[in-house]
Amino acid sequence: MKLPSALFPILLAAVHALAPGAFAGAAQAAEFPQRPVKVLVPFPAGGAADNAMRVIARKLTEYWQQQVLVENSAGVHAIKAGAAAPADGYHLLLAAGSQMVTGPLLRAKLPYHPQRDFVPVGRLVTNPPVLVVHPALGVKSVKELIDLAKKKPGALNFSSSGIGSPNHLAMEMFQGLTGTDIVHVPYKGGAPSVVELVGGQVEMAINAIPSVLMHIRSNKLVPLAVASAERARALPQLPTLAEAGVPGFDYTIWYALFAPAKAPPAVLDKISADLQRALADPEVARLLLEQGNEPAPSSSAALAQFMQQDSQRWARLIRERNLKIEE
Question: What residues are paired with 160 via a beta bridge?
Fold first, then answer.
């Protein structure tokens, strides 16, 4: 009997699925994990990324009946260590867009290469940043801030956690879209930049919501707008910058899980699926939102596509603003 030609692709796929490698990959994923899984976090304990990862790690531990260990380490060195870790699915890295997208665009020399050294597993959360000013500045809206900055070019200043940091790039975007000239005051880390802002040594910043939320609630900082395209659930009454008169402004801080290159695809698919399941859990979502983080689950393929688009967008801004980090 002659088989219909339409069946040949189906049969071919079935043959491939029955190949020894497919059996091995499926068995590997079904058995994963057989021991604790370590997630390297290149941020200090107690920060937005660390807090989010610990909530998610508890849920994954529940799913897998194996401990998911969160290990904090230092910045670039941690990412380098993540790239050199065994590619077995038991060693993962939490990283931010500033480390996997904008950092490589700003620095000619890095001890890691995101596309070469890592494979994306899935996005965890986003932090919609918020534009805040010190009360002493006396402005209550984005329009008032833009008007003041245009009247006093080069007289106002903003803080950031360092040259090329997310809050630095966000303010560069703000200046480019509003035609303002505001002086950058970089600090060595997010904590001192916020302390100086609250103390009035600097006048404004665009910060991740978790880092300034308590200061907003205690009226030590005045929130003007969120930087993301959509309003933040942590501050629902606050307009977006686009709504407040800066069309086209769209910036969100994001964090995602990555694995060393050549990690088993079937195992990574399982991790990605369980990660998305954890982020959809109502209790996990509630805890993340209380921190000021927003659950943002994605598949590994969707994350890879998002990173490519993000890279193109930031490359354009970095070129237009002539930004770079001297090595």
Answer: 186
pLDDT for residue 34 is more than 60: yes
pLDDT more than 90, % of the chain: 72
Q: How many domains does the chain have?
A: 2
Residue 75 lies in a domain: yes
Comparing CA positions, the residue from 314, 321, 317, 322 lying closest to residue 103 is 314
121 and 167 belong to one structural domain:
no
Helix (H, G, I), strand (E, B) or coil at 45: coil
Q: pLDDT digits over 210-269, tens only?
A: 889 999 999 999 999 999 999 998 899 999 999 999 999 999 999 999 999 999 999 999
Q: Is 159 helix (H, G, I), strand (E, B) or coil?
A: strand
Evaluate the CA torsion angle 227, 231, 233, 238 in order and state its sign: positive
Answer left, alpha or beta for residue 281, where phi above 0 means left and psi between -120 and 50 means alpha: beta
**Secondary structure in 3-state letters for 196-250:** HHHHCCCCEEEEEHHHHHHHHHCCCCEEEEECCCCCCCCCCCCCECCCCCCCCCC
Residues 138 and 207 in one domain: yes
Q: Do residue 101 and residue 154 come from a single domain?
A: no
* 278 found inside a domain: yes
Is the residue at 246 inside a domain? no
pLDDT > 90? residue 131: yes
Integer Cα distance of 68 and 38 in angstroms: 6
* 56 and 95 together in one domain: yes
| Structural tokens at position 61 | 């531990």
| Residues 180/174, Cβ–Cβ less than 8 Å | yes
Q: Which of 201, 222, 243 is the last residue of a domain?
A: 222
Residue-wise pLDDT tens digits, 161-218: 888 888 999 999 999 999 999 999 999 888 899 999 999 999 999 998 888 999 999 9
If asked whether residues 118 and 158 sit together in one domain, one would say no
Residue 122 sits in which domain range? 34-126+253-320
